[in-house]
Phospholipid-transporting ATPase (Camelus dromedarius), 1126 residues
Amino acid sequence: MKKGHRDATLLDHEKKWDNLHFLTSPSDGGREGWGACGSERSEVNRDQKIERPCSFLCGPSEVEETMGWRQSLQRTDMSKARTIYLNEPLKNTFCKNSISTAKYSVWSFLPLYLYLQFSKAANAFFLFITILQQIPDVSPTGKYTTLLPLLVILTISGIKEVVEDHALLETAEMQTEKQLSSLSGKIECEGPNCHFNSFTGTLHLNGSSPVPVGPEQVLLRGTQLKNTEWILGIVVYTGLETKFMQNSVKSLLKRSSVEKVTNLQILVLFLLLLVMSLVSCVGGMLWKDKHGVDIWYIVKKEHNTHSFGFDILMFIILYHNLIPISLLVTLEIVKYIQALFINWDEDMHYKANNVYAMARTSNLNEELGQVKYLFSDKTGTLTCNIMTLKKCTIAGITYGDQSSRSDAGGRKLSQSQACSVTEAYEFNDPTLLRNLKNNHPTKACIKEFLTLLCVCHTVVPKRDGNNINYQASSPDEAALVKGAKKLGFVFTTRTPYSVTIEAMGEEFTFEILNVLEFSSFCAYVQAVKCVLFCVALPLFLKQCRNIFLAGLRTLCVAYIDLTEAEYQQWLVKYKEASTVVQDRTQSLEDCYDTIERKFLLLGATAIEDRLQARVPETITSLLKANIRIWVLTGDKQETAINIAYSCKLLSGQMPRIQLNTDSLEATQEVINQSCQDLGTLLGKENDLALIIDGKTLKHALHSEVKKNFLSLALSCRAVLCCRLSPLQKAEIVDLVKKHVRAITLAIGDGANDVGMIQTAHIGVGISGNEGMLATNNSDYAIAQFSYLEKLLLVHGAWNYFRVTKCILYCFYKNVVLYIIELWFAFMNGFSGQIIFDRWCISLYNLVFTSLPPFTLGICEQCCSQESLLRHPQLYTISQTGDTFNIKVLWIQCVNALVHSFILFWLPTKMLEHDMVLQGGHTTDYLFLGNFIYTYVVVTVCLKAGLETLSWNKFSHLGIWGSIAMWLVFFAVYSFLWPTIPISPEMTGQVNMVLVCPYFWLGFFIVPFVCLIQNVMWKSIRNTCKRTLLEEVREMESSRIQELDLPRDSEKSPRTETANLQKSPSPQPCEVVFRNNSVDLGNPQGSAFSQVEQTGISQEELVRAYDTTKSMPVGTVPSALSKAVLE
């Protein structure tokens, strides 16, 4: 996927959106047309569905940046400044404006793909065998028996890679205005860097004084520009030098842990194959030395280095099928079909937008069943980023639907209402209006309360016919104004110095005297006439307690009547504080504090940041599945904590370790102290929450602190990281990924989540309101966070069982058949003679035993979907990896070794004295070989039946159909020659074999002897070491739905020994913390999404709008223009 992106500085804005205008831009490789003339068209990113996209594109030049050789971006030194010249493109030679987030390009596909494929041990081995087979007189199986299957595998895999790496490009054109060509000057600014919150520059326009440019004027890629229809800007960074790309990380080659284990064991099998070949060579030498005199009819060979080397190669080729070449293509097909199951799942179909879940890669299907750490974004991932007024308390009386929380009502809403404001989710309590109309004793308080909500804010009303739309930089403010409107108090007009409302049939106009800036430590206050209206972060008041504990965003509402003298006296102090040079912010805070006293508390509001449907239930299930959840967000700490309580990630009594420090020493001290306080509980999961901001995290990731910080974080049940940059998100994920032996999953919906999505073992993108960048860079895409429950607990668990059983079975069946060649070597004097027909050997994996692995890999289910969702603890079976590891794999191989021993020597002993056929003919080696081959096919197919937990028509077809397929082929194959000149030695074999009574005796006895040990072992294990899985399967098989079985975290005596599959509950925290970073109190629910300390003050913003006038095109509100340009 190739896109161009720019960061730009905002110079001005106007009321037109037809075009985006540039003063100038960095040269795109010296291309003419860029600059003041604006004759070249450029593109604007439409990747994100936002109101006013402001990602500026430079042009068509490309920078090839592919998966294999793309390195982590170089962080440019901030001290290295750059100068950008207006309308002089030849002087601007900076980074080209094109990036690629695709895995492959046209030129890199072949080398990168071949590298990826031959980094798999099996493919590399079969390439080696293919080369050996081309040596004359070495291969006993021909030249092309390995080459053709290998080419088929590479072709199928290549097609799958191309399909999964498709790219999506959506752009829209814009054209620079020619009248800007008269502008000249330059901008001096810092070099490209990864810091989102910093920018230092100076704009020099010829004939004008220099204008300082800071981070407030920088529009980053993906910026949402509201209440503005078009802008003037200068492009300062392009392509790989944009701040977003400076925060990007290297796109990694992702492989599942199961694949890594399999590759390692294939290497071990290769070593075993070399040992077998060496043993066979030595055995051949010894046998010839011992029996050489008696075998005068065999031409003798001199024992020398040359012949020994050829013998080694011959035996390597003879035994090479010990390594399952069919495993690779089988897994490719199995995983592709598993991905289709995910794509077709109607339970993960978001009908509101008609969006299905999408597996963008199938390589990690089984990894979904092993996730231990889940890293989640907040806004747009857990929440809908839609604020609604839910409750309020006025004069001690609480109003609002007590049962309207999203976690209680989410299931009642249709998917089309999941992230939309509906009547069910708006403030709805007729008691408030009745009290207002019926002269209730609190009527005056109610009126003053609603009036304050209409007046004290920075919202801008826009009329659309008879409707009024509210635009606000803070969604909380918009929610309060909309809530008041629903109750009959309507904010209608804003001018630079007044606001007008309609209430109770009358119109009221309030003069705005001053606006006191909002901060996290003080109120948002407007002085209207001589009344001071205040919306403040709450104290822990008794009447607000229930709202706090409900996890709603709470603000206190208060006012005070001021005399004219009091106001004038304060105004003098305010003017002095606003003009001081040093510590102006603190001076203003002190000035505000002198007037923000003796407020009369009217009540409090409770705003809900709408969670997506079933987020609390999903998080509860994932926690019970022993998945630890970390929330990584760029939002404020108070907001993140509030959402964590809303979605049940945090509980009311959970101690919270809050790390907010300004230096490395302070960070190290508080982390070390917390680790000491935990003592022996350090490293164990405790009922604790760790909360840290981005500034502190920068110090926590220092090499001296990182180890203790990680230990502290791993000791907590939940971790919240706030105010993080995209790079910090990726660093957190990488820290856990590298130092903890566990599978990580990152989920997000925006461009700032791409880094952690690419870094985690599994990346999941949510196709939400912030565009497609997250989904385009993810491994799996879903439309709602709640779909993660089924993706992991059902598809993940099923895919893990299916893939691992398929792998184990493929190893088993290959060892069973091809070790028999080793046993036969002891009888044929290690001559390299094969016991089976050559084509039968080739078709063993391709045809006769191909169906059972597919039925295991596609249709197998450890238990039903309902049981997996009902008992999330079942997920720990796949999570711990106890069903597939090196030990389990080699137990299976040893079992196959035993079976091969029985399958060879038992029929051999049956025919030890040979037998005479009708007509006096005797048997040959193929007679014995066909006996054994038939028993092998029957045994391995029945073994697949023993491994099957979920029988269906495909299971029966795969097992019984494979046996029937071989018998039919055997009958037909015996009569092909001489009609078809192939395998003349097989002629008439079926007539000899099927009439032999020994064959039918062995047909039932030999597989029974092989498998009886497996049946006995399975019965003993399921009886004496019963697990939760067996309990659930018993419930399903008996159809008893009310079986006394532990639900969720309960235990029954029958499953006590299983310990709920190692899914322990968190340790109760009984630790005495000796530092003040730990908050043991109840949550206060205080959060307000208002930007603090911006370049444009809230008072300037309020004074900038006059909704009574229509603004001509090309004009700018004077206050805002002054704030930006001067």
